[in-house]
Task: inverse folding
């Protein structure tokens, strides 16, 4: 099973249900940002070097997976970016600004921003449809449906306490670094997600039917789709051209 943990978020399940119920009509354009700023570090994490992590698109691949879970696999991608502010000792060599544009099979579009070169950090996904729009707000721990100017809100996590805990974690992050250590206490919201993820895996091993919304995690498509899109985006960055998948 591919470990794309966003699929187990309470808010993500709600987003999928809203779209399945036709609440926003046909999704036509989506936009995601996972950005922030990182200062010079005494010890550089393995995540900050392309040779060990692949860069932002790989160690922060969950949003790239989620957009394609909603819109379908991308058919072409174009990306610009670079390491604009984090060179030298105390920094890794991964790109700190990445700007992606995705084209999907039905002509719909997606854009994404990643990186540690953003002083004003954000973490969200917006899905715009023909009849309404959805905001998956990971920074403020909520999801919202906007239909006809009326906003319907829903928890991102499984309790108000977990939502508050996650929202506060963005305020407490020191210089954009929140990797955790071997002795770090796991936040409750993440422990809940991991438990649900492992329960789904256990149930599948025991032969229980896999939920339709999780099928892509078990048949390999979620894994291969996200990786091939990330690889194509990195190729686009090098060639400065659109790359077909």
Result:
């Amino acid at each position: 099973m591919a470990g794309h943990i966003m699929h187990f978020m309470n808010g993500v399940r709600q987003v999928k249900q809203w779209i399945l119920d036709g609440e926003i009509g046909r999704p036509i354009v989506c936009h995601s940002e996972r950005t922030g700023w990182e200062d010079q570090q005494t010890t550089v994490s393995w995540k900050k070097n392309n040779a060990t992590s692949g860069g932002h698109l790989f160690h922060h691949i969950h949003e790239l997976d989620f957009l394609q879970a909603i819109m379908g696999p991308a058919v072409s991608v174009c990306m610009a970016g670079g390491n604009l502010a984090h060179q030298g000792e105390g920094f890794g060599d991964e790109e700190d600004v990445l700007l992606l544009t995705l084209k999907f099979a039905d002509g719909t579009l997606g854009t994404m921003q990643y990186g540690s070169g953003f002083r004003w950090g954000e973490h969200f996904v917006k899905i715009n449809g023909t009849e309404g729009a959805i905001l998956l707000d990971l920074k403020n721990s909520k999801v919202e449906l906007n239909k006809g100017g009326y906003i319907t809100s829903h928890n991102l996590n499984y309790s108000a306490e977990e939502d508050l805990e996650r929202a506060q974690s963005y305020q407490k992050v020191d210089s954009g670094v929140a990797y955790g250590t071997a002795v770090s206490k796991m936040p409750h919201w993440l422990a809940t997600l991991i438990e649900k993820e492992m329960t789904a895996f256990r149930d599948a091993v025991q032969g229980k039917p896999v939920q339709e919304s999780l099928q892509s995690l078990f048949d390999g498509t979620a894994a291969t789709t996200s990786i091939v899109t990330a690889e194509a985006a990195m190729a686009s960055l090098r060639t400065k051209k659109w790359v077909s998948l």
In short: Strands lie at 27-35, 74-82, 97-104, 109-115, 123-129, 133-137, 142-147, 150-155, 243-244. The first strand starts at residue 27 and ends at 35.
